[in-house]
C-alpha cells in the first residue's frame, strides 16, 4: 500500500473524465464471495493480502464537458460563436463567486454501473438560482455529491481514512470542484503533482480491474 499511497490511512480521489475514490480496507477484511452488482462500492485484491474499496463513478469531467458543449451549441443556434475553452473558464469563474445555491443537480447523464438506468435531473429550481454561477456550482456539487452517495465520508472514517489525496485533470483545473470535495469530505486534503505521482500506481491497478469487469 505504501508504494501507492503515502499512508494506509489515505484515500485517493481521481476526477478526470470519470471519478474514482479508493481506500485501503482494514486489516483482515474479506469481501463477500458473491459480489452484489447493485452495490456502489467494489472490492479488489491489493498488496500484502489486503483489499481496495473503490467507488467508481461514470460521471465526472465528462458531465462538465457535456454542459459546456450544450452551451456552445445553444449559442451557435443563436448565431454566436465561442470557444469551449472560453465557456469553461468563464463558468468556473462565475461559480467561484457563487459560493452556494439551492439548485440541485443530479448529474448522472451516463447512469452508473450499479444503476445503469439512472438519468440526470434538476430540482429546486427558482428564478433566483438560474445564473451561470448557480448552475455551474450546482453541477460541480452534484458530481461530488453523487460520489459521496456511493462512498460517504462516514464509511471512509470507519475504514480509518484520515486524509484524501486528490488528482486528475478535471479536479486540478477546477477550483469549484476542489471546494465541493472539501465540503463533502471534510478531511485534510492534498492536491497537485506530488499527489498524481503517489496515486498513479493505485489508479492503474483500479482501471485494470474495472476494464476486466466490463469486458
UniProtKB/TrEMBL annotation:
- SUPFAM superfamilies linked: Actin-like ATPase domain
For this protein, the record's InterPro entries field holds: ATPase_NBD
| MF terms in GO | kinase activity
- Chain segments annotated as coiled-coil in the UniProt record: none
- Tell me which UniProt keywords the record has, alphabetically: Kinase, Transferase
User: Which family would the database say this protein is a member of?
Assistant: Belongs to the FGGY kinase family.
Q: What PANTHER family would the database entry show?
A: SEDOHEPTULOKINASE, SUGAR KINASE
Name of protein: cDNA FLJ52918, highly similar to Carbohydrate kinase-like protein
Q: What species was this sequence derived from?
A: Homo sapiens (Human)
The organism's taxonomy opens as: Eukaryota, Metazoa, Chordata, Craniata, Vertebrata
